[in-house]
Write a structure and sequence with these properties.
Helix content is 51%, strand content 11%. It has 810 residues and is an alpha+beta fold. Among the domains are: 533-669, no CATH class; 676-769, no CATH class. Helix 27 links the parallel strand 3 (549-552) and strand 4 (569-570). Helix 2 packs across helix 7, helix 7 (136-161) packs antiparallel against helix 8 and helix 12 runs antiparallel to helix 13 (261-281). It starts with a helix and ends with a helix. The model is unreliable at 1-12 (pLDDT under 50).
């Protein structure tokens, strides 16, 4: 028995540094999120919004200074509320019901699936949530696990691969978990990729440390997790950050004599192949996207994005703190956001790093640095360059304006290229202090720069109401933090006892933790799960709408993409998967006044998405083609109770109020047309595209919708002459039709919708959707899995060949 346990112990033996990583990750997660772990608070943003509207209790564990409400510490919660979280429930429904996720019939008049990218339908987090059945508890467990392993691998990178001290690894882990970029965007679709960067860095750097088949396969799997996150701006910038860090690590291997130039090139090549392997593994995601790239207009959309630079010097202090002369994020007072017409910052895009972290980063340069000096130099150069880029000086503007895609990535998405190098610099700074091997001047210069910025902004903005007492206290804490980190940087080298020095540096990490927690201003509501507790007005709609559609006014009721979660069809969208033809139809049918267009700018005069989310109760300022809405099958219009002008307008157009809750009024359209109908097909046969005659509504015959699923629609009926059967769903070339057992073409009706010509008599039409590239994608994915299994099983032989090849290049 003893021998058995000894054998088991040997097999599961964990080295000390890995054990530290497990423990530190657990400790930090419990310390940072005790409200979520012990008090049933939620990290899910729909829980926050629903909690605010329905008086769900807040569940703070710590007394977090917060002057304006739960939203004060957030940056952009719309991406989660209107895109990624509803799509998690869409994926839950799709998997549970055995339906394809490649077509979403509930958004607009039908939209593409994972090709939408921004809603993260195929991200690791979405798929795990969906496979586990969804729900608020599941979501919180999944995101906490992702954060846990993010901290775990951050610690291991610093401790094992860089060989730095435990204090350094702990400091880097704290900063990874609590810097302003992650806390202000936690739960958003923007930062899902952030969670997987540490495992990618660890896998890539471990492979660089020792080239082997198994480590290469681990890199492929790690990058597959990362690339499953398809919010491209932050995926691209996070990839840039990783590339810079890995490059610095690889150069160290070269400079230390561990590798020759040819071996370093070979390592770089194989890392590139790991990215390709991840792409092939995720082919069911990326092949359909590439297939639809042109038809979606994604590249064109990104090329029109405008880069809003940060205000200089107004935004500088926000690097150090989110609360000072003015507050940032959603807590910013209007005067701060538009002071003298120049604004204190643009949008809510300046994410605090904290005085302690910046001070530790300033200590990253050592007096004696025999190794990793190139890594530190690259991290300093990259983080500094991007920080300057955010202010958009003319010389950088001229450089970036000519770069496709990258040149148009918004300032709020560039922060990974600052934060990840800064994580490395924080680790080296703490390590250098412990080793009494610090160049003090950079740290002092950074602190002096922050003080200068404060004086400069004070001259412009001043210290004033609102919340003057809170700002004063924040400034006092900021001054104390500056004094503390400067004192430690100056006097740590004079501490002779290693134990006392570790204790002092441990207190630095604790202060950084507290500072970042206070600046995060995060207070959360109790879990409440909107998707499992449908509001009464929406329940009424769900029970009575059938295959018709809704039209939602404003941000309440059935806001855009919420229909995808509840399986209720809605005509508007906040998603990239909407097809250009439908956008053209929507904008031609609904002409909103500019201030009511979501994302209106001179470069995007129609707005970002077909949406009524910003529509005001001013019917006289907007033009809506109600005949077009009848054609789309809009049975219900959902109005906030306060929209009395539109209530009057709709009643004048034949709508009737059929339900109202405390917040939402449901108006039924009595003139709605059937979702599927037949009209005479004179001279339509043989055409690829047809336009409906102006009087079609007076001559149509309803067609039965026998089955309506994500990727399959079955229609049936009977006509006494050759007819065009029209379904008011968007047309796409990947839809195919079978009429009475024979494949037939699907015509494009009114440039955007589907139609099939049928002969006289009874008919059954089956329409099915599948990306043309999907069989190839599945084949590529299976081949990649088979290759990795083969390499893993034959790893000894393959490794010996790799080693023999590398020996020849030395």
């Amino acid at each position: 028995m003893y021998n058995f346990f000894a054998a088991v112990k040997d097999r599961v033996k964990i080295n000390r540094k890995t054990a530290e990583a497990y423990l530190v990750a657990l400790l930090l997660l419990v310390a940072a999120f005790p409200d979520v772990i012990f008090k049933d608070a939620s990290l899910r943003l729909t829980d926050q919004i629903t909690g605010a509207y329905t008086a769900v209790p807040l569940k703070p564990f710590y007394t977090i200074p917060n002057t304006t409400g739960w939203w004060a510490g957030y940056n952009d919660n719309g991406g989660a509320t209107y895109q990624s979280e509803p799509m998690m429930q869409f994926m839950v429904n799709s998997i549970r019901d055995g339906q394809t996720p490649y077509w979403n019939p509930y958004s607009a008049a039908g939209a593409l699936g994972p090709e939408a990218l921004v809603d993260q339908k195929f991200s690791a987090m979405t798929l795990v949530n969906a496979l586990l059945g969804g729900g608020s508890l599941t979501y919180n467990i999944v995101i906490l696990l992702a954060l846990y392993f993010g901290v775990f691998f951050t610690y291991r990178i610093v401790r094992e691969l860089l060989g730095l001290s435990a204090v350094a690894a702990f400091a880097a882990s704290v900063f990874y978990l609590l810097n302003g970029y992650i806390t202000a965007n936690l739960g958003s679709n923007v930062t899902q990729s952030y969670l997987y960067v540490p495992i990618c860095l660890y896998a890539a750097m471990a492979f660089v440390s020792r080239l082997s088949v198994l480590r290469w396969c681990m890199a492929v799997l790690a990058f597959s997790l990362f690339f499953s996150c398809t919010f491209m701006p932050t995926t691209i910038t996070s990839l840039i950050a990783m590339g810079c860090i890995i490059l610095g690590f690889l150069v160290n291997c070269l400079q230390s004599g561990k590798y020759s130039a040819k071996t370093a090139l070979a390592a770089s090549f194989f890392l590139g192949m790991s990215l390709l392997g991840a792409f092939l593994l995720l082919a069911p995601l990326y092949f359909p996207f590439l297939e639809n790239l042109k038809s979606l207009g994604t590249l064109e959309d990104y090329s029109k994005r405008y880069f809003w630079g940060l205000r200089y010097p107004n935004a500088i202090m926000s690097f150090f703190s989110s609360s000072h002369l003015f507050e940032s994020y959603n807590a910013a007072e209007p005067l701060a956001a538009s002071f003298n017409g120049h604004g204190s910052f643009i949008g809510n895009t300046v994410f605090h790093s904290g005085v302690v972290a910046i001070g530790l980063g300033g200590c990253a340069l050592a007096k004696r640095m025999p190794q990793f000096k190139c890594l530190v130099a690259i991290c300093i150069a990259v983080a500094g360059f991007v920080a300057v880029r955010l202010f958009d000086p003319v010389w950088i503007q001229e450089l970036f304006v000519h770069l496709p895609i990258i040149g148009h990535i918004g300032s709020q998405y560039w922060w990974p290229v600052i934060m990840f190098p800064l994580i490395i610099l924080v680790a080296f700074g703490a390590h250098n202090l412990q080793a009494k091997n610090v160049r003090i001047l950079p740290c002092l210069a950074l602190m002096a720069f922050g003080i200068w910025a404060f004086i400069k902004i004070y001259g412009v903005f001043g210290l004033q109401e609102p919340r003057l007492e809170y700002k004063t206290q924040s400034l006092e804490l900021l001054a104390a933090a500056v004094t503390f980190i400067v004192a430690v940087a100056l006097f740590a080298r004079f501490i002779s006892s290693p134990t006392i020095l570790r204790a002092v540096l441990g207190s630095v990490v604790v202060v950084m933790f507290v500072e970042l927690m206070l600046m995060g201003k995060m207070v959360r509501f109790e879990r409440n799960d909107l998707f499992s507790n449908m509001p009464p007005a929406l329940q009424f709609v769900k029970d009575n709408i059938g295959n018709y559609r809704t039209m939602n006014f404003g941000q309440g009721g059935l806001y855009p993409e919420l229909g995808s979660a509840f399986k209720i069809q809605e005509v508007s969208t906040l998603n990239q998967g909407g097809l250009p033809e439908f956008r053209d139809f929507f904008y031609a049918s609904i002409n909103l006044e500019n201030s009511q267009r979501l994302g209106y700018h001179e470069t995007t005069p129609l707005g970002s998405f077909p949406s009524l989310i910003l529509i005001q109760d001013k019917p006289q300022t907007n033009t809506i083609n109600w005949d077009a809405m009848n054609f789309l099958g809009v049975k219900y219009a959902l109005l906030p109770l306060t929209y009395t002008a539109y209530e009057t307008e709709l009643k004048a157009r034949g709508f009737e109020e059929v339900y109202h809750s405390l917040a939402t009024r449901v108006m039924e359209n009595k003139r709605v047309l059937p979702r599927a109908f037949a009209i005479s097909a004179d001279d339509m046969a043989g055409n690829d595209s047809v336009d409906l005659p102006s009087d079609y509504a007076q001559h149509l015959a309803p067609v039965s919708i026998d089955s309506y699923r994500n990727g399959e629609v079955i229609l049936s009926g009977e006509t006494d002459q050759e007819s065009l059967v029209v379904l008011s769903d968007t047309w796409h070339s990947n839809w195919t039709a079978v009429l009475n057992g024979n494949k037939v073409p699907i015509l494009k009706v009114d440039k955007a919708f589907r139609g099939v010509v049928v002969p006289a008599g009874s008919f059954v039409i089956r329409m099915e959707y599948q990306p043309k590239s999907l069989p190839w994608a599945i084949g590529s994915s299976i081949m990649m899995i088979a290759l990795m299994l083969f390499l893993t099983l034959r790893r000894k032989r393959v490794n010996s060949k790799i080693n023999a090849l590398l020996l020849k290049t030395v």
